[in-house]
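Let us practice reading a record.
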Amino acid sequence: MCGLVIPSALANREAAAPTGSDPSAPVGLGCPNRWCRLPSRSFSVVYSLGRYEGALRRAITRYKYRGDRSLATVFARMVLSYLEQHAAWFEEVSVITAVPAYTGPGARRGWDHMGALLAEMATASPGWWPVEAGLVVKTRDSPPMAGRSWSERQTLASGPLRRALRGGAAPLAGTQVLLIDDVMAEGSTLNEVARALRRSGASDVTGLVLARAGWSPVPPVASAPGRGGLAAAAASSLLRPPPRRSCGAASP
């Protein structure tokens, strides 16, 4: 780890703070992320291992941009530990996959960092769920979204990114997918990949990210009845988890 310390508590510090509140909730209540109030979103809820700050941010930067591939094992174990600690929340998941990267000619990065993490998960997984790469494929590079405004991100997501994504060969009809990514800044990339999964037949897409951007805290609100493991999350959440059958996830 070359002196890099990731606090052990980081893997569960956001355990009770899913993103994806009831889209009918008034502005200012529940989740402060814009996607929470958009019925057009394609994911139902997103969980985060921690915030994109401090040691976790430095580790993700080293892994993603500096190519420190040894961190794939560290992050895979963090994700698996989180899933083990909160297994009831993910009991209806059929398969785990990751946001794809383009690594062909002209690619900005020559490796698929989330694919490497997924491979480590498949090796170390206790076998609770299948772990599969390639459920969505990225066929070309798309412009980076870092530093862009919300409107610019939407234009890039619904344009170049959407055109670059296609469903893989595996049948997904009726499956519930857990989609892994590194950072959720505001959710546009995750939403587009979830859309591609839904169009390939997935009945539900739940997100799990290593880190999310820091948002302003919100007051606790009454939670709605959940389905399956989400009901347990709702009991102690500071954000308002949606009922997974009525959370406003878009139809394919």
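A brief commentary: The longest strand covers residues 176-184.
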